[in-house]
Each structure stands twice: as structure tokens, then as C-alpha cells.
Amino acid sequence: MIREQLVAPSPTDLTAFLLRHTRTRDCLVQVAGLAEVTYQGRAASTADVGSYLVLLKRDGSLQIHAPKGVKPMNWQPRTDEITARVEDGQCVLLASRRSRVEQVRVVFLEAQLAQALELSEEAGFVLSGSEAQMQDALARHPDLIEPGLRVLNRELLVESGGIDLYAQDAVSQLARYVASVQRMVGSVVVRGILAAPSITTPARAQLEGRGFEFREVQALPAVVSASTQPGLFEA
Amino acid sequence: MIREQLVAPSPTDLTAFLLRHTRTRDCLVQVAGLAEVTYQGRAASTADVGSYLVLLKRDGSLQIHAPKGVKPMNWQPRTDEITARVEDGQCVLLASRRSRVEQVRVVFLEAQLAQALELSEEAGFVLSGSEAQMQDALARHPDLIEPGLRVLNRELLVESGGIDLYAQDAVSQLARYVASVQRMVGSVVVRGILAAPSITTPARAQLEGRGFEFREVQALPAVVSASTQPGLFEA
DNA sequence: TAGTCAATGTCGGGG
DNA sequence: CCCCGACGTTGACTA
């Protein structure tokens, strides 16, 4: 799985290494070492000389990691062209895009490690808990909001945006929705319940000020202990 | 700069390695190999067995990279606790957060490579082209919007939000601003100019419908050729 | 291809 | 600690 590894390669060797693997694009390429990084495109950035970790993936994406944070210091999502060359005795890596004109330039002052790894094809990956899934699950199992709740008109509920948990103005949206339903049903009492995994303090105050309720729905089973209510996405 | 490197370590060795380095948190730790990853927290996800690259940074952040994309397949921004242990003869890495309860679990079925790299302290990093810088630059050099433009009252211009290039409703905001200035200056003609790096088609239509103008301001010097106008952030 | 919108958004600043 | 807002947001979906 380690296709190739160079320890402290010379600029020439590193350049050749990069060219070899970026041409085939069949490996995940990494370089760690002292470098200087600049970016020009939608914005511009400069990173002083420091030790960074550079990742080149098979899809042509590039990312340069500083010692902290999940987010790379610099990146390029999908490059049209990646090249390496020797400039002034140093290996320079250029990654650029044409559609949106931008470029990342890495000057390696001292590479400590370069490696090419074979990663197998993408394996199956399933994510649950997105808004779409949540809407669907709540519409199917409204008794997760409160036992006994039934959906009288699912189309109305979903289409009118009655379930909109992430909207910034969820409270006023709820108010509008409640008002419109109230008009339709006449004298029957209409409650407004905002069901969400969480709520901010100001939002809660506003909600209760309007006489509405908040109901926490756990989208997923708790990590640590058994959940007190069934998770939405278990089955 | 390579503090330690293990090639195809046993589960026991890998566990010890991970414990050693996560305890000190002074290195960037990498493991590449066959693994299975699950996440539970704000959402939940499962990744089938595949070969991934795991990165552990000094700040406790974790990311697991699949062969494609800038975005990690799984991640954890800043963990409260990272532990490793042997379970059923396999090394298991657990990264969890307490404030927001969530956890990433990596089961290494076959590690190919584990390494601990010393990255120097964060080096200087400067990004230019952000909204704040742009506001400032435009206030200082209004003639970038149109030669001859002068700022009559910078306080008013900046404080009233007169320059607000990223607001979703920039057009209506501009309208309000123009109206308020018009009231103040009386009979003098007031033009509304939206100066931004780009504009969407619908926004432009709305803008021109109200009799306002759009002026493209290049925030930065072009990558390829000499820019036709001086960049905002050059000096 | 361009516009729109969710995201395990991440990250940093301010109360 | 929580709330708020920017971001080179990215990425997926849709007209």
C-alpha cells in the first residue's frame, strides 16, 4: 500500500516524484516539510515559511495542513492542472483552476518526507441525520414529537414548510404557519410546536413569548447511554 | 522532523504509539491503512472497511480522509479526549467531545503506516480579500469604484452600512441608503452604485430595475496577467 | 452552467 | 460558555 516513500528528498527528486504521481493520479501523495505557500484567486493569502503537510488526492484536490484545525490552511478543491518544477534550486508545486481562475503555489524549502499511498476505491459510506431525512422521519412518526400526535394532512405539513427546523426565523415561520392553519380549521385550538434537536436561548424566549412550545427531538440515539426515546434514524 | 515511524505495526504497537503521542499532543500523527469508521453526534455515519488516512493534529482535531475530496470523510473539530485501545485484537481509536456530545470511532483492521511528525509552531499567515478588508480598502480608495469619486463623509459611509457587499439584500439595502442620503442632501442628485467583485443575474436585474449601477471591483490583482486596475490590497 | 440551499459546516470574535 | 456571523465557505441539487 505504500507505493513509494522518500525521506528528505532533494528538490530534483521531489519534483520528479511529484510529476510521476500527479501524472498517473492513482495515489494519494503526501509531502511534509518546510514550505512557503501562496494563494491567489477569490482572495489571496500568504503563509510564511513553516512546516506543513501537503496532501494531493487522486481527484486532483490539494490541501495544505498547518499544525492546527480541521480546515486546511490552503486548499484547491478540484484542480485542472498540477505541475511541479525546480525553481532556483527549490521544488515548486503549482495547482491551478481555469474555470474560476485561482492558483496555489507551494515552494518546498526542505522536504522531510514524501510518500505515495495506494488507497483502495471508495468504500461504502452512509450518513444519516440530514435535514431531509429528519423532515421525512418526523412526518412519518409525529408521535416522536408528542405521543398521540397524528398527521392530518401530510402534504400540507410538508409542502407548506411547516417543518423547517433550520430556518433562522423558524419562530416567525411557525407563527405564520399556525395562523394560516387556524384560519383553515376555525374554532379548533391550534398549538405551535417547534421540534428540533436544539434551540438557542433567544429563540426560545421569542418562541415562548408567542405562546408556542419547544420539543426536543433527538435525531439519533445518544452516544453514551441508552436513549430515553427512540432515535429517528435507527431503522 | 519525523519523530517516529512504524511500518505495518501490530495492533498493540499501534495502540501504544497512538497513546504515546496523543498524550503529549506535540506531534501531527498520521495512520494509513484499512479501517472502519463510525460517527455519532449531530448526525451519524458509517464507513465500510476501506483504506483511509487518519490525521491527528496537536489541537486534538481528527480527520479521516478517503481517496477523494478536500473534505474529510469523517472528522472531529476539537476533541476533549482521544484514546486508543485494543479491542478483539484490533486497535480502536476513539475521539470524543463533551460540550457537544459526539464521538468518532476508528477500528484499524490493518495499519500500513503510522508516523508522528513535528510541525513547527504556527507560522505567519495572512489572508486578504475578506469583507472587512474590502470595506476598509474601498473607503480609503473610492476612486477604484470610479475615478473622481470622493468620500464626503466616511463615518456616515461606513457606520450606516453603506458599504455592505455581501449582504443578501444588498440591493434593497442600497435603496434604503440612497433614500436616506437623498433626504439629507436635498436637491443634489444621488447615485446608487453597488461595487462588488461579482453579481448574480437576478440581483443585477433588480438593481437596474431600481435605477442603480453595478461596478465590478477586482479585490485582488489577477493571477495570470497584469491587472487592468490596481488591486485593492497591494500596498 | 449558474443559482440556491444545507452542512456533523469550521472558525473566530464578543457578550 | 454561548451566541452570532463570515467564509477563498464546500457540495449537492435543480432549473
TrEMBL record, chains A, B:
Alphabetical list of Gene3D superfamilies matching this protein: 2.70.180.20, 3.40.1350.10
The UniProt record lists the keyword Oxidoreductase: no
A Pfam short name: NucS_C
Database matches in InterPro entries: Endonuclease_NucS, NucS_C, NucS_N, NucS_N_sf, tRNA_endonuc-like_dom_sf
Molecular function (Gene Ontology), one example: endonuclease activity
Domain Endonuclease NucS N-terminal PH-like: 34-120
PANTHER family on file: ENDONUCLEASE NUCS
Name of the protein in its database record: Endonuclease NucS
